[in-house]
């Protein structure tokens, strides 16, 4: 085929075989991607704790053998799930709140109350996180370990501190977004 006729032929583009999802999906913000990944990790931790519990019960009643420290591992896994799960809840704006009187307030007042609520959350979580960090550091200094599984005690206490600190950061981000008019109104979604 001559070169001139090739330039006038319709251009055919081949689909990218690595893009099996079809058209480009909308971009997911980094924060939401991190939260989704955290949810997946927490789900795996929960499944691991359930499997460990099942194995321990089966071993105890069917084989006459109990895994030393299994209950401690399960307990500290639940601590991890609870405090890291609180980060997910804060990110999604699904915290428990008393909203009985909010129905009576105008939208502007609800928005202002949302900022105050977030700032109270930030102060309380930041203070508690700082106390938890201090306690976790004491556990590390004392080289304290759990009785059965020999887990360094600064780890579960550190998870508490990390979870509270992250909730405080999320609360601060949400308060700033609200003040800039960028946040979706969590309260409005709850009320309607």
Tell me the β content.
under 5%
Q: What letter string, H or E per element, gives the SSE order?
A: HHHHHH
Structural class: mainly alpha
Number of E-type strands: 0
Low-confidence segments, given as residue ranges, are 185-192
Describe this structure in a few short sentences.
The protein is an all-alpha fold and 192 residues long.
What is the element layout, followed by pairings?
Blueprint: H1 3-8, H2 30-62, H3 70-92, H4 107-142, H5 154-180, H6 186-191
Helix pairs in contact: 2-3, 3-5, 4-5
Account of the 3D structure:
The protein has 192 residues and is an all-alpha fold. The chain has one domain. It is 68% helix and 0% strand. The chain has six helices and no strands. It has helices at 3-8, 30-62, 70-92, 107-142, 154-180, 186-191. The model is unreliable at 185-192 (pLDDT under 50).
Which features would summarize this protein structure in a list?
elongated, 192 residues, mainly alpha, disordered C terminus
